[in-house]
Amino acid sequence: MPYPFRLPDLGYPYNALEPHIDTLTMEIHHTRHHQAYVNNLNAALEKHPRFHSLGVEDLLRTLSDLPAEIQIPVRNNGGGHLNHTLFWQWMTPGGRHEPGGALRDALVAAFGSVDAFREQFTQAALGRFGSGWAWLVVDRTGALKVYSTANQDSPVMDGDTPILGVDVWEHAYYLKYQNRRADYVKAWWNVVNWDVVEQFYSRARAR
Ligand code: MN3
């Protein structure tokens, strides 16, 4: 969806992910943090109609083609908009606790086991100093990789396709978990929407 960008619906109520992710955090995260990225992205592009037909992924893939003065605002706020739009979809109340299908096989092939994948992803989330994200991506060759990015940088900036990510900015957990990022990430695994992650994996492989 191109300019003007809009805040997407979550697809579930703010209290749906309790007790793992609390209601107030979800509401503030969606209506204030994500809305601010949307507003700031639209403001950055307002005077640049040449780029109004581009979706947010295309903007991020071709950042260096943008006018110099909007590259950083689009990187931060476009990244914020895309990352959060995906993040809401990757969570669900009462999700399955294990991936299945082709994704499960690919995780075992790439990491040795689903538990080993989960451990590596968790370490990426906990090892990110300051604000950022941990990711499971499909790279250009179709391989699965785990890494983290700083701030709102998106894997699409490097040509990778994110299929699962966790927000480790303090705003994602501070109200309930304060400084205990490890407790937040451990709880977050309970709400991962593996059905959707499997769909993202199939789509990424079909490219
Ligand atoms: Mn966030």
What does this structure look like?
The protein is mainly alpha-helical and 207 residues long. The protein has eight helices and three strands; from the N terminus they run αααααβββααα. The protein has a three-stranded antiparallel β-sheet, sandwiched between helices. Manganese (III) ion binds next to helix 1.
Sum this structure up briefly.
This protein is mainly α.
Q: Ions, cofactors, ligands: which are bound?
A: manganese (III) ion
Strand content: 5-15%
Helix content: 40-55%
Give Rg in angstroms. 17 Å
Shape: globular
- How is the biggest beta sheet arranged? 3 strands, antiparallel
SS field, number of helical segments: 8
Secondary structure tally: strands: 3
Mean pLDDT: 96
Structural category: mainly alpha
